[in-house]
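Customer escalation, tier 2.

The customer says the design service returned an amino acid string that "doesn't look like it belongs to this structure." They asked us to rerun it and document both sides in this ticket. The original structure tokens are below, unchanged.
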């Protein structure tokens, strides 16, 4: 269900920070028309850290309603409080989400046993499949492969989004977590290599601006066509790096604004893209065919 090209959707906002639901609706329809296979609502890229609980759930419900079962909607429901992660996951299930993307608890740095118990508790309470999400560069803790293997024993823990773009980690996970357990790259710059090494897809920031190209990459990689995979990835290489020149989602929201897809709203403590990064991001957009010269 969660294989292929999944987009980590931004949450469009008005200049005053209110969620722009009209722009959100348009993004959802655009992605589905462009071949995106799954929508992730209110993950890191969706500014989950600055949305209220009510807003968080409202965005999830809106994406589900607009998608209208055309593609799966994965709800970001992670928190550094297990009780809060459970509550969000239960609500997402009741709203009709196809799955829950649960990031490792951030800031409090739980040990591996704490991570294990946290995820097990979330899965026990959930009515929908759970996707583990490991992004130590943002959370301060690393879900190790051996812990992921332990967690895969739970029938509702069905996938892992792995943002450690390390070849050894990729190979270890694929060898120790055989299909049908789904492995998704969370690092755009190494996603092609990860999929060629056996990962099943990607949850992508880059797909926000070039959804058709990301779908093409995923199709080629899943078919094992190395040449076609490299050809599809080449125009996006600049985006993979430039969209992280400032903390995500600052660059990707600026890029979508330049494309006329969303307005310029973003919530503090995030701010507008720094001026010195505008040229490299714009150049990457042009190179990828997302903007004209």
């Amino acid at each position: 269900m969660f294989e292929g090209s999944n987009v980590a959707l931004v949450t469009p906002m008005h200049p005053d920070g209110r969620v722009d639901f009209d722009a959100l609706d348009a993004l959802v329809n655009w992605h589905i028309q462009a071949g995106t296979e799954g929508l992730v609502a209110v993950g890191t890229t969706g500014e989950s850290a600055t949305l209220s609980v009510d807003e968080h759930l409202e965005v999830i419900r809106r994406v589900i309603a607009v998608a209208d079962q055309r593609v799966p909607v994965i709800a970001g429901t992670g928190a550094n409080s297990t009780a809060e992660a459970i509550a969000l996951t239960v609500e997402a299930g009741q709203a009709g989400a196809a799955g829950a993307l649960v990031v490792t608890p951030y800031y409090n740095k739980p040990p591996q046993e704490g991570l294990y118990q946290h995820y097990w508790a979330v899965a026990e309470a959930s009515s929908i499949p759970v996707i583990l999400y490991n992004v130590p560069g943002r959370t301060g803790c690393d879900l190790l492969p051996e812990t992921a293997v332990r967690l895969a024993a739970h029938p509702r823990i069905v996938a892992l989004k792995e943002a450690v773009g390390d070849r050894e980690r990729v190979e270890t996970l694929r060898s120790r977590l055989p299909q049908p357990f789904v492995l998704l790259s969370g690092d755009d710059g190494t996603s092609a290599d990860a999929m060629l090494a056996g990962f099943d897809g990607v949850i992508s920031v880059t797909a926000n601006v070039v959804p058709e190209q990301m779908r093409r990459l995923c199709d080629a990689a899943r078919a094992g066509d190395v040449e076609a995979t490299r050809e599809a990835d080449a125009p996006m290489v600049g985006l993979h790096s430039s969209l992280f020149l400032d903390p995500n989602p600052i660059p990707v929201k600026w890029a979508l604004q330049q494309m006329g897809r969303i307005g310029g709203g973003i919530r503090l403590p995030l701010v507008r893209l720094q001026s010195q990064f505008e040229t490299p991001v714009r150049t990457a957009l042009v190179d990828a065919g997302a903007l004209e010269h």
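Tier 2 assessment: The sequence is consistent with the input. The longest helix spans residues 53-67. The CA atoms of residues 285 and 291 lie 6 Å apart. Sent an explanation to the customer and offered a walkthrough call.
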